[in-house]
Amino acid sequence: MAKDTPQTFYLKDYTPFGFDVESVHLTFRLTPETTRVISKIRFAPKPDAADKTFFLHGEELQLISAKIDGQDATPDVTDKGLTCAVPSTPFTWEAEVEINPAGNTALEGLYMSNRMYCTQCEAEGFRKITYYPDRPDVMSTFTVRIEGDEPVMLSNGNPMGAGEGWAEWHDPWPKPAYLFALVAGDLVNHPGSFTTRSGKEVELNIWVRPGDENKCAFGMEALKKSMKWDEDVYGLEYDLELFNIVAVDDFNMGAMENKGLNIFNSSCVLASPETSTDANFERIEAIIAHEYFHNWTGNRITCRDWFQLCLKEGLTVFRDAQFTSDMRSEPVKRIDDVITLRARQFPEDNGPLAHPPRPEQFQEINNFYTATVYEKGAEVIGMLKRLVGDENYYKALKLYFERHDGQACTIEDWLKVFEDATGRDLQQFKLWYSQAGTPRVKVSEDYADGTYTLTFEQSTPPTPGQPDKAPRVIPMAVGLLSPNGDEVRGTQVLELTGAKQSFTFDGLASKPVPSILREFSAPVILERGTTNAERAFLLAHDTDPFNRWEAGNALAKETRVAMVLDGAAPDTAYLDALEKLVRDDEQDPAFRALVLSPPSQADIAQTLHERGYTPDPQKIYDAAETFTQTLAQQLETSLPRLYAATTVEGPYSPDAEGAGKRALNGRILSLLTRLDGGEQAARQYEAAGNMTQQYAALAALLKAEKGDAQSQAFFDQWQDDRLVMDKWFALQIACAAPEKTAAAAAGLTKHALFDMKNPNRFRAVMGALAGNHAGFHHASGEGYQLLADSLIALDKLNPQTTARMCAAFQTWKRYGSDRQALIRAQLTRIAGAEGLSRDTNEMVTRILDA
Ligand code: PHE
Ligand code: ZN
Q: In angstroms, rounded to a whole number, what is the distance separating the alpha carbons of residues 761 and 749?
């Protein structure tokens, strides 16, 4: 098969563009299939530029005309862009191109979703709109005129005027092209307003399709809370008269921070008690905050090039996590984040797709919007804050905004700010940005004559392209407990910098029990020989809520690992500890729900793999079933009381307290359903006044294979609501038994409401398939085959979403040789598919190279 060798881009090759862009004027003449884009751009050559080539990116454009200073120009055009001879003094470039929004199923550039026009330009989508230096370090002001019949026509910045068939917008803040946005369609707004702390009135709108107006109120409140929080905590104010959010049904990602015109996947903004679960509400609040916070960390200060992506994403994820902790519960948020990190980032960091938070090369940048860039990027900032302290952190951030406002920056700029603000040398710390892989930290201890010694040894396994790693700076938050459960040393941050290092604590009357890596102070894997008795002690006594949960989580894992490896029975001491905790009404319900949530089966597979075993997904599934069944029986007599005590009465409110109670209630219901044949769940389904309860009941029933009637009722009730139907699609697959999972997913791909072109629906089905560990990895290989078939089909329509979902195969090397052979065959088949996109080709090649 003849394929062009794909081009690889390198961080080390960075060269600035040879021209300043002084202003950009764009006119859009909108029609679904033949939209015209007329650009008028003022360029000024940089006298001392090393590279004076006038190259403009442009892909899938039909060039109608090009002029320089009013004279016809004759550029050299390829399928990547154009070059042209240009004057050595400032000049005006004018071009007219034609594009086809209706035919754009990749959802990048200008496309149509449900008859509405919208754009997605990050990272490199603007080049599908017009010829332009489409790179984040080229910043300019934009003036936009939209011509068309749509009732609402929006772009970035402030409105300059509108009339029959046209609207004009001007964004006074210079920005890179990836932050450009345009939306036009039949939309209605949910309005709001916010007065900034300096007294400026900002008009706020959430724009949706008619019929969705009643799902905007929660998002609007979340937006106002975010604006206030950024003022209070970071001293950052909004900088335009208007802030618009638009909900779009077809969107590859969660949402996008376009200046003054955020565009959201409708699943990340629309919310109502009837259609959204507590988890949906929390996620929506976090994503609205995340996109809003980008206004300063991303837009006012942007990235020099895409290798620096974690500069804006890591920081903005860190900020939205701080926000959620402040709005809700700090320990619960931390535990949730660590669960996600281990589920998404650890497999990436310990497999063929491992890359540093700042990668040094890529073929397709869309493949680097990863858990490592986002979540590990945020962890790195959390470590930095812990090392320099809160006061220094905010001092450094203040300097960052003063020094770099309006600039396109690098990780070097970011670290320099911290060095200047705190006087600390961050050379070694910087390794977190350049080295991939999760460090392992081995812990040993010693106690003699009142002195307790903790010794840490760090090492990081090789990752693709990085065989050897240097020791990193690892902040280890540690506390010590006495055997009677009192804390004898409060949390202290030990700075591990060497490959092996010891820390001593004097004056201890007896050998303490250490609580290590409190709050998960670094994204590492701890290796420590300890006993279940000690874990149970920490679960009962640790003053750090994270480590209390962690102790329970470790117990759960040990029990399940022993069940899988030795056919052991569930550990009774652990069952007793769980029972005690669940019945302890003094404890936060959200925390109890977390402790009651078993580690995922993928997590057990990963643990077995780390310990040198080959995980058998079916055995892991069986152990999970046995464990949960045993737990249900052990709790049998208390379940009805607990169920009643955690049922939230009265009108629904999506606050953290109610959500915590409902989470615990849902866990209890799932246990109860194992014993009562689904009676309580059926009653809850009937009576449910909100989606959280309806969904929990349906999930419990489907898991017990007792939910056919309710599933049909759910469909009848919600078939016209796309977002609720995504839940219906996903849940049936998530709850299916291993041997039925692939068939359930295959059946749903034939459903009349399955639509490959809608990424949410595709992810609902294929994401649920890949997420059902034992079902996806069933020995028949049907799961692998179905996913591969679907990815090959989707790649022709939407490469970006296809490539992202290839990651479902990234852990393939940890399974047995039969499964490896089956997966290899599917990966090879994808790699050989005709006309495979650059996106998917890069992913499959990296995974196969494992
Ligand atoms: N920049 C977006 C965010 O993190 C994510 C995104 C990337 C959206 C690429 C679309 C395309 O908020
Ligand atoms: Zn972001």
A: 10
